[in-house]
Amino acid sequence: MDWLKKLAALLVLIGALNWGFIGLFDLNLVTAVFGSATTVTKVIYSLVGLSGVWLLLSKYKC
Hints:
Distance between the termini: 18 Å
Structural class: mainly alpha
Strand content: under 5%
Helix content: over 70%
Order of helices and strands: HHH
Number of strands: 0
Low-confidence stretches: none
């Protein structure tokens, strides 16, 4: 389970960096690498979003 948490943190970090590049340079790295509106791009965005939710829930789970 520890590797899953590290993977989720890595995906969230990638998502945060991507948003930083979008905001600062108007450059979306995910679409630049994988293309716009492809299945791979949608999967990456979905995994980043789910990782963020999972980390948030695991941090505040009681």
